[in-house]
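Cont'd.
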Amino acid sequence: MCGIAGALLVEGEAALPDPARMIATLRHRGPDGTGCFRSPTCVLANARLSIIDLETGDQPLANEDESVWTVLNGEIFNYLELRAELKALGHRFRTRSDTEVIVHAYEEYGDRFVERLSGQFAIALWDGRRQRLLLARDPVGIRPLFYTRTAGQLLFASEVKAILAVAPQAASLDEQGLAQVFTFWGTVGERTVFKGIRSLPPGHRLIVEKGAQRLEGYWDWTFPQGPGRTDLSLDEAAEALHALLRDVVRQQLRADVPVGAYLSGGLDSSGIAALARESVGTLQTFSITFEDPEFDESAYQRQMADYLGVRHCALRCTAEDIGNVFPDLIRHTETPVLRTAPAPLMLLARHVQSQGFKVVLTGEGADEVFGGYELFKEGKIRRFWARQPQSPWRPLLFSRLYPYLERSPVANRHFARLFFGQRLGELDSPFYAHLTRWSTTRGIFKLLSPELLASLSSAAPEEELLRQLPADFPAWSELARDQYIEVKTLLEGYLLSSQGDRVSMAHSVEGRVPYLDRRVIEFANALGPRYKLRGLREKVLLRRSLRQVLPDAILRRVKQPYRAPDSRCFFPGGRPLPYVEALMSPSTVRRSGYFRPEAVERLLEKCRSGRALGAGDNMAFVGVLSTLLLQEQFFGGRAAQAPVSA
Amino acid sequence: MTLHAELRRFILENYLLTRDDASLGNADSLTGRGILDSTGALELVMHLEERYGVTVQDEELHPDNLDSIDRIAAFIERKRCP
C-alpha cells in the first residue's frame, strides 16, 4: 500500500515536474520511504507503506533489462501464484514483492495482464522501449487514481493534492461534480469536483502512446439477463460461498506485517473477523463506540469479540472529536461529504496506526454484493405497491423499514405513504429505487446561489449516470439494477473513497475488503435475487453461509448501518465551533459564490438551536460546511503548498 | 400578521431557508414539493404547539391537516374554535 504519482510528456518539450514534489504531498499514504524514476519523457514516484517484502520491495521496480518500470498503490493478493507462473515462463525476479509481478506480467501478457490480477490496486507502468504509459485501477475502485492533461503533460496521482502541487492552476470547482455529490453523495464515472481532473474509473486502464490516449474498460459489475442462476439450493450456495470467502480471506491475510480487523458488531465485519480468526493464531480487532445509543454498537462488539476470543480494542468517539477533526477530514477526502461518518473512521485509523498496525480487514461491500440495504427493500415495496396503487395495505409494509432511525421517514404512516409514493408510477426509470433518496438529498440545492443554480440542471446528474449504464442493464432483475446503481453511486463515489481509502490512508492504514473480491462478486451476481433478498429479509445467502462461524445473536441481528452524529458535532455548548462560525459567516459564504448567505445563516441557526431534526437538514449542513472547507483548503491554493498532516 | 402569513413565513424560513414569498403558494402540497416528510412534520407540529398553544394528537398527524398552508391554517382554526 502506498501513494503513487507521476507525469508523462505527451507533446512539446516542456520539462516534466519533479516527481519528488508530487509524492511529498502523499507521505501520509506511505511513510516508510519514497522512490522516483526519472526519464526525459516520463517520471514515476512512490511513497511506500511497506507491507509485503519489507527488505527489497522498494519502488519503483523494473523488469530484467529495466525497460519497463512500475509503481503500485495497493496489493496484488495472488502474487505468489503469478510469480510462480511467470518464473516457470522464464522471468527472473529480483525481489519478493507483489509489485514486481506487474512488470513481468505486462511483458508476458501485454495490457491484459491487469485482468489476471486479484487485488486492490492503482498501477502506473512505463514501457520505455515503446514509449507508452499504462495506468490501471482495480475492478471495484478500492484504490484511487486521478489524472489530468495540462501544458502538454499528463499528470497522475493517488490523490488530487499531488497533482495540484505541480499544477495549482487545476484547482477550481467542477459545478457538475458538486451537483452529483449533492444528489448521489459522490461523483460518478470519471468526474471529480475538480474541473479538468479525472478519476480513472474502476475496472479501467488508460493507455497513452504517441500523444494519443485510450481508455479501456476491462471489468464491470454485471448480472444475468432474467432470473439468474437458480439451480443451487440455498444450502448448496451457502456452502460454496463459505468456501470461497474462506479462501479469499486466507489470501487477503498475506502480509509481512500483522493484519487486524474492524469489528462493528454487525453481520458483515463479524463474518470476516471470524474467518480471519480461523486462519491466524491471534487476531486483533478494532471498533468505534459512541456515547449516543442511537449509533453505539459496543454491546454487540464485545459479544462478538468474546465469542471469537480475539484481542479487542474500542475507540470511544465523541461528537466533539468529530467536530474537531472535520477540517482535516476534508483535506483527505478532497470532496464535499454529506455525513460525518468518515470522521470517526479516520480517528480509528489513527488509533490503529498508534497500535502498530498497518493492515485491517473490513466488512465493506457485503450490502452491495448480497443485497443488504434498506433501499433495496424500499424499491421492492414501492414496486409491489405500484402494481396496486389504490391498495391501503401495501404501503403499510414501509413500517418495516429503517428500524434503526430515531427519526424515521416511516414514523408516521400517512406521511410515509406520501413520501414513498413520490414518482410511484415511474416503474420504467432505471433509478426507481433511488428516486426518493435522491430527492431528499437534492434538498441541498435550495441553498445554492442563483448563479451556481443557473449553471446547473437538476436533471444533469441522472442524465450523466444514465449514459454510463451497460447496454443490457434493462434486462437485469429489479434487485440487480438497484444493486448496480448503488455500486456506481454510493459505493464507488463515497464508501470506498471518502469513507474508505482516504480516511484509512490518512493514517497509513490499508483496509482490505474481502467481500469485494472479484470472485465473490461474480459468484453472487450470477445468483438470482431470491438468494439475497427473500421477502424483506436481507442478505439471506450470506447469513446462511456464516452460520458455522457466527453466534445466533449476530446472525439474527436487525441490521444497523454504521452512522455517526451529524450537525450537533459542530455546536458544543450550543455555540458553533470557531472555524464553523468563520466559514459560514455571510461574508465568507458570499465570497465563495456557491451558496445563498441568508439560507446558510438560517440553516446554521436551525442546527445550532437543535431544531434540525431530519436527514435533509443534517446532510445540507455537512454538505455546505465541507464544500466551504474544500474551497478554503484547495481552491485557495493552500493545499498545493503544504503537505497534508498525517 | 395573518395566520396564513405567519405560517408561510415559518415554512419559508425553516424549510426553504428563504423569505421569497413567490416560492410557495398557499395551496401547494408541502410533501409534493419535497418540503415536508415525517421528520419535517414533527418539526412543524412542535412549532404549532409552541406558537398557537394547541395540542396535536397522533391521529391528527395527517397530510389532510398539514400538507399545505391552507390546510394547516384551517386545522389551527378548528383546534382553536372546536
